[in-house]
Amino acid sequence: MRWELLFADLEALADATDRAAFEADVADRARSERAAVRLTERLRAHLGAVLALRLADRGRVTGRLVDVGADWLLLDDAGSVLIPLAAVTVVEGLGRASAGEAGEVQRRARITVALRRLARDRAVVRVATLDGGIVVGTLDRVGADHVDLALHAQDELRRASAVRSVAVLPLAAIVQIRAA
Which residues, 6+ apart, have CB-to-CB distance to 2 below 8 Å? Predict the structure, then answer.
């Protein structure tokens, strides 16, 4: 009888030890998986959600998340606003969900791709910069790390006679771009 109790105790102890090791392993794997999640994956899981963002220029933008690229996001806040992820300091409104890893197209969809589309469409834009400034005009060229913006009145089309000057903006200085 004593031997049976001893073996039962040993077996229970082994089961408890195995269960504790298993639970610790599961917790460790969960932490490891969470550590690998990127902000873009969390954002993609919340397409259509209303988010509030604080930006590097101390501005705030609230709107419905429309799209997410490799280094940018697009919000609709009674108009489209393109925001470089590097300019975002706080995101409110995200749940814990995350989308899977981005596909090849999304990984390649850097902000320069979106800016080239705006340049191709000759859209008049309002660009907010890190120093709190706003410049208005039409994107003429998009380089690897900068854009050329032909400055003209918001209500004018880009014509040589309307352009006051051309400003070169480093991408790192751009906080948001709105359709004018």
Answer: none
- 53-72 confidence digits (pLDDT tens): 999 999 999 999 999 999 99
Measured CA to CA, the distance from residue 132 to residue 175 in angstroms comes to: 9
Model-wide pTM > 0.85:
no
Residues in the chain: 180
Distance of CA 143 to the CA centre of its chain: 21
Residue 45 CA to residue 57 CA, distance in Å, equals 26
The region, left, alpha or beta by phi > 0 then psi within -120 to 50, assigned to residue 113 is alpha
Name the E strands within the chain. Answer: 50-55, 60-68, 72-76, 80-84, 88-92, 124-129, 134-142, 146-151, 165-170, 174-179
